[in-house]
Amino acid sequence: MAADDLPIAASERHSDEFPIIVEGLVNRFGEQTVHDDLSLEVRQGEILGVVGGSGTGKSVLMRSIIGLQRPSAGNVEVFGQSITDAEPDEAIGVRCRWGVLFQGGALFSTLTVGENVQVPLKQFYPEIRPELLKDIARYKVMLSGLPEDAANKYPAELSGGMKKRAGLARALALDPELLFLDEPTAGLDPIGAARFDQLTRELKETLGLTVFLITHDLDTLYEICDRVAVLADKQVVAVGTIPELLETGHPWIEEYFNGPRGRAAQASQARDERRKASSSSRSMDKPHKGKA
Ligand SMILES: Nc1ncnc2c1ncn2[C@@H]1O[C@H](COP(=O)(O)OP(=O)(O)OP(=O)(O)O)[C@@H](O)[C@H]1O
User: Which of 12, 151, 217, 226 has minimal CB crowding within 10 Å?
Assistant: First the structure.
């Protein structure tokens, strides 16, 4: 076999192009097989939406990628390092390069928001002095769109939307390159959900993040996702932009995106685009006030 014909091992591929590579993943719980030979590559700098019916294994996939779930078989690499083979302390260098917002925020109820944000900082950088820890936490709280005084509040004192932002602040604590969001807009009202989407997009653009985003929210998929991965039949059955997914003709994809809610989200996105186009053409028509 010529060298060019050799299969390229995941580890030899550019991990800077694909910070997450999942190959042949199998996850079983007793008799139940959740994933069977599942593969997925996440591109650097994209927001990848992950969708699928309830129980198709979206959260188990995320847990396998971040090393909280040891798969029955297969390999997961993050930034070129195998997560599946690594002992917990071996993966420490790579673990500080990602942040996770779990469903419901998963905040410690006995700690203030600021103290919650300090937890990963203390874990990975125990040498940081307390005043600096407080300053970093305050900055992350504000970066997540919360008022500065939210740092001193306890989770029970926050609304659902504020809790999500507090969870996001903690996910951003270590200046991650990869952000995992598990149903970030679930339970938010439509205005709060749209604001959270916008924040995710802005953070992705300003901080250069790659985002793995599990969602059931069609508006989120249309508004901010660069590509969408669809879980069905124990595998990722398709990955691409929404028009590309629709071309596959997969029955679940058809039903999901072309059902009543899918059509409403599509129409809303088309309206947004028309509004943006008309406001940018109006601003181009305006006479310049500067020097003649
Ligand atoms: N630790 C576990 N032990 C046993 N079964 C599990 C475990 N974790 C997940 N499962 C099972 O794996 C399947 C997939 O679960 P998962 O939470 O990943 O689904 P999901 O796609 O995220 O669903 P949803 O959209 O409803 O959140 C479910 O049937 C669940 O019961």
Answer: 12
Would you give the DSSP letter of residue 155? G
- Whole-angstrom Cα distance, residue 25 to residue 4? 26
Res 157 pLDDT > 80? yes
Q: What pLDDT shows up at residue 106?
A: 84
Q: Whole-number mean pLDDT of the chain?
A: 86
CB-defined site of ligand 1, < 6 Å: 29, 34, 52, 54-60
| pLDDT, tens digit, 9 for 90 and up, residues 8-21 | 554 555 677 999 99
**E strand intervals along 127-171:** none
The model's pTM: 0.86
Ligand 1 centroid, distance to 89 Cα (angstroms): 26
Determine whether domain 13-96+210-273 maps to CATH 3.30.70.100: no
The residue type of 268 is S
pLDDT tens digits, one per residue of 219-256: 999 999 999 999 999 999 999 999 999 999 899 999 89
One-letter amino acid identity for 168? L
Q: How far is Cα of residue 242 from the mean position of the Cα atoms in its chain?
A: 17
Backbone Cα Rg of the chain: 21
Q: Is 138 exposed, middle or buried (0-12, 13-18, 19+ CB in 10 A)?
A: buried
Give, as one character, the DSSP assignment of residue 259. Answer: S
Pairing of the two strands 47-52 and 210-214: parallel
- Give residue limits of the domains in the chain: 13-96+210-273
Alpha carbon 52 to chain centroid, angstroms? 15
Best substitution site from 32, 35, 56, 60 to test ligand 1's pocket, by max atoms within 8 Å of Cβ? 60
